[in-house]
Write a structure and sequence with these properties.
single chain, about 140 residues, alpha+beta, OB fold (Dihydrolipoamide Acetyltransferase, E2P), two-stranded antiparallel ribbon, about 25% strand
Amino acid sequence: MVSYVSDGDTLWVRPADGGAPRKVRVHGIDAPELCQAHGAEARSALQRELLGLAVRVQPLRHDDYGRLLARLWHADEDVAARMVRTGHAWSYRYRNSPGPYAEEEREARAARRGLFADAGAQRPYAFRRAHGPCG
């Protein structure tokens, strides 16, 4: 069950068998930082969709910050795909790859959904490079 949402791509999940919640980074997406444009909206979207609900977690690996990277599903829907399709996150790009949710991003851009309605929306890494980290 999702017990807390940190931002648009990080949340805390309590295991079904009990125990302490675990911090999970949603694999394959990059949501705006909380202090940048669209950051609060991305977190709110993830909260509305998942807070207090059961999710299926497919662990993949741990990132450089020790967070569990995982694919998540709620009601058989890929959470990351939904976040990109609704315009609350970008498909995570790595080198020359458009990322796993490139098609959902193209669809959201074409429909000008969420952050894609803002021609000046910056990817989080560009925002951090220009402004430093939040907080």
